[in-house]
User: What shape does this take?
Amino acid sequence: MSEVQGPVHVAAEVVATKRIGGYRHLTLTAPGVPERFRAGNFVAVTVDGHVARRALWVHRVRASSAFGPTLDVVVEVRGTGTAWLAAQPVGARIALTGPLGRAFALPKEAVSCLLVGEGYAAAPLFPLAERLRERGCAVSMVVSAPDEARLLSALEARRSARSVTVLTADGSVGQRGTPADHLDDLVRRSEADVVYAAGPPSVLRAAAGAAERAGAWSQVAVEVPTPCGTGLCHGCPLSVVGEDGVDRVVRACAEGPVVRGDRVRWDAL
Amino acid sequence: MVAAGCGGTGRELAAYSGPDGLDGLDFVTRSITLDARMGGPGPRVEEVPGGLVNAVGLPNPGLEHFLATELPWLVRAGVRVVVSIAGSTMGEYADLARRLSRAPGVAGLEVNVGAPDEVGVGLFEVREPYHSASVIAAVRREFPADRPVLAKLRPDVSRIVEGARSCHEAGATAVVIGNAVPAAFPDGRSGGLSGPAIAPVALRCVAEAHRALPDLPLIGCGGVHDLRSANAYLDAGATSVQVGTALLHDPTTVARLRADLSRSHQEM
Ligand SMILES: Cc1cc2nc3c(=O)[nH]c(=O)nc-3n(C[C@H](O)[C@H](O)[C@H](O)COP(=O)(O)OP(=O)(O)OC[C@H]3O[C@@H](n4cnc5c(N)ncnc54)[C@H](O)[C@@H]3O)c2cc1C
Ligand SMILES: Cc1cc2nc3c(=O)[nH]c(=O)nc-3n(C[C@H](O)[C@H](O)[C@H](O)COP(=O)(O)O)c2cc1C
Ligand code: FES
Assistant: This one.
């Protein structure tokens, strides 16, 4: 069993940090992780002095740089773990496991795709957009946030996507409103065959609903707190409906975090 | 040895197990029940200083499905599979033991008679040592004598000697001390505390049980995360240790400990 694929547990090193708006962006070396990464995977990191691990989306991987392969994560400070992470300086070492979880499923053909992301959680849509574009898909993106400071990389979105819609709840930049207000219209205008969504449950649910009404597929990246992130503890329940129509509770970190939107039991989330 | 409920289905550990993979790993499954269980609602696990409080609710696919899918995979990978069993009646425990005795590749059973909130999750209530002893006896009757039956008790120092003695007399090959400590989430729900915070509690129980019952094999469980914490149990009289929460924190813990312990010529 020596050539086991899948995740690795390594000492990552912070090689660059940047504050952009309300977020801290960290660039890390993590031997083996960028090479195995697929869009929608996450990493689990150890916060000094804490037992439970913190999950982070991967915003970008670079196959080569002055430091070798690297990955970028985006941190929004909300509690002790994210505060610790945001304070890590260049040169700091962080125990990191990844890539973890199911990635976004990619369409076999060059179809139209609408990508909807809110806040830091939009992070995994950026590597996804590049993959889709390489496959010849027409990519439209919706980047949303409560306010401008929490709008993630809207400029970069324009590089991979044919059209980009910016939404802020307070109207500080782009159009005013939430994805729920605009999604039916956006799905129709983009003629999307697949809708990909990443963000809080309200956004995922709106995206899954709009896709279903338009007859499109949807894939949603769900955040359920992950005590281990590695599938070991069964502490990250996600209620879904199986192919057979039977309700199931799966591990969000192992059977997710990306699942089909029409499979999620939204009321349980 | 991997503690019950902290090694996923076993497969997930393969990526973190070094060049030998899972071959020869002593692995206790999460507790398996006769019927499938979805487990409890979230949040199932919360972090507290020095550990975790959990109320996972014994999610498992049920015996049938476990035998058809998870067990064969583990056996093929060379894992020494100890199946943890949990039931709501004595009859269920006996049934589980009987059917597992016929399943190829089951190295032994671990009987979960010390869950931190057994009534809350619908398990057979074990308030008194004779409750656990009668479960052990029922299991022992159904399971071949040449394969071990482990009794897993909660680390309650006021009852541990009595509990270990009665389980031993009822036929337990060894006693695992202990399970998560009965505790509550910050919002008041019942759960179990695990991790480094409980190591001193379980260690005291192992020491007392070993003093009173020097011939009974004991397996230490609670907060083991490195060679030092493992050796504390071995020095207190345990013959081996189990690792739970530490694996959730660092999935390579067991691989590392196995290497460290074999280097220091002790068995895990
Ligand atoms: C798949 C996934 C991807 C994520 N990606 C990112 C990301 O790219 N950037 C980012 O900033 N954050 C991300 N998060 C959330 C992040 O993992 C933190 O756990 C969460 O923000 C709380 O951590 P804390 O220590 O700061 O807060 P605390 O309140 O101190 O955390 C206490 C405990 O609660 C858990 N917890 C509380 N709220 C959440 C939550 N919303 N999600 C998960 N766990 C929670 C923590 O893991 C921790 O065990 C992601 C979560 C998941 C599940
Ligand atoms: C998430 C989680 C799930 C657990 N599931 C089980 C279980 O199914 N059966 C069981 O006997 N013990 C279960 N336990 C208890 C552990 O096996 C172990 O006895 C306890 O956590 C103390 O050891 P530790 O500090 O190394 O974790 C579980 C513990 C945790 C944290
Ligand atoms: S977080 Fe532990 S199994 Fe998903």
Observations:
- Residues A 226-229, 231-236, 251, 253-254 surround FE2/S2 (inorganic) cluster (ligand 3) (CB under 6 Å).
- The first strand of chain A starts at residue 8 and ends at 20.
- The mean pLDDT of chain A is 95.
